[in-house]
Amino acid sequence: MAKLLSCVLGPRLYKIYRERDSERAPSGVPETPTSVTTPPSSSWDTYYQPRALEKHADSILALASVFWSISYYSSPFAAFYLYRKGYLSLSKVVPFSHYAGTLLLLLAGVACLRGIGRWTNPQYRQFITILEATHRNQSAENKRQLANYNFDFKSWPVDFHWEEPSSRKESRGGPSRQGVALLRPEPLHRGTADTLLNRVKKLPCQITSYLVAHTLGRRMLYPGSVYLLQKALMPVLLQGQARLVEECNGRRAKLLAFDGNEIDTMFVDRRGAAEPQGQKLVICCEGNAGFYEVGCISTPLEAGYSVLGWNHPGFAGSTGVPFPQNEANAMDVVVQFAIHRLGFQPQDIIIYAWSIGGFTATWAAMSYPDISAVILDASFDDLVPLALKVMPDSWRGLVTRTVRQHLNLNNAEQLCRYQGPVLLIRRTKDEIITTTVPEDIMSNRGNDLLLKLLQYRYPRVMAEEGLRVVRQWLEASSQLEEASIYSRWEVEEDWCLSVLRSYQAEHGPDFPWSVGEDMDADGRQQLALFLAQKHLHNFEATHCTPLPAQNFQMPWHL
Fold this sequence. Notes:
The protein is an alpha/beta fold. It has 19 helices and twelve strands. 47% of the residues lie in helices and 10% in strands.
């Protein structure tokens, strides 16, 4: 009877992976008392095949879930319509509640029938036995057996807790009540006394900004967190996850962040491979509709690196909602997991981000300054210009206030706090992070990210002359144009390197540098072009084109 109840309440099982011979337990090692014997390897090379009763019940419950999601998103409009028609009176609501209660009972009955269908299936009973054994005892053998199943991630046991590192509070002070530290925006009206009257005047605007951010704004910024989109992408995500596990020997793990969100991760270990880059770990930060199952993780994988992918809060197996604080909390536990559980030193970790993933990447670089390098692909400097681009001009004040207070993705500000090597990849046909049209390459916000970084690190070089020549170089939309501008200014790379190395040897590596203050205009222009060319590479493609492995290069450093 207990097993039947477990089948009723258990998670949905999607796939049973092929069992890898390298993961079998050694024949001479006895099993732990709570371990479960696995079936022969021939039964593992298949999708899970539910019995007819479970299959039809699952279809009904899935359909009900979709209808509930549609009802949730349309509830404000439905409530307004019902109110206008007079259907929200007590005489109308009571019968409706009876219908709703009857429907819930029917769905509960369908769930029980699904449980019976699972109970009659030996594969599901085997799975639920392993899952229960793993929750009782997270031994290596039990976790190895559980990794052969793909099921609803909410039932996966937690593998790593944000508080697990013993030295955390001693070395970093520990997170605050809300979580890890973020850079807070400056007040819109500096110098204004924060009196009670001013607070009351601001209250309507603050309430409006909060409502916009938590309803329309968050879903526009992170469409991957919308349940209906995830439901439509589920077959593709399952296929991508199967490829990572079966072909790349990926290991899935659940991390518990400071805010209680559970973060879905996938680790591919290449440290045992012959290629030296396998000793380096690339942590991948996906875009606003990207998932590690089908995202930018494929680029460093093809290049031979060890890779750790993770999903934003609210994406696929990760819980929560993707607001900046939650994003930073998630990134923090991912980095902690890489260092304290996977065993990588910060000097061996590279942060690679695509698009909106630049926020968490730059936060990690700012918060973990010993990280080896940062690579930002198709990313931007600040969210406000891109948000204003898609909203009406009459909403300018509301949009700016909402972004600054609730969705402040200040990538450039965070990146300037990082002292290590940085590479920016600009898509020359990018249609997403341009503020006008894709053909107008100067409206690409990746340009602003480069300029702000160089102006912070080399303020004397990036004075008027240097800034002007870098802007001319950024206007190049092809490699031929880029080389033409570079050669026109007759940049002497050996001279530039000698100047930078001499300054570093005399003053140390910490930015900002005052190099260039005693240099003539021609020298500053050469140095500015040299630095721009080393920090930004062009890729002739649109925003969503996968980056080829040959374009995944380590950033330049002295």
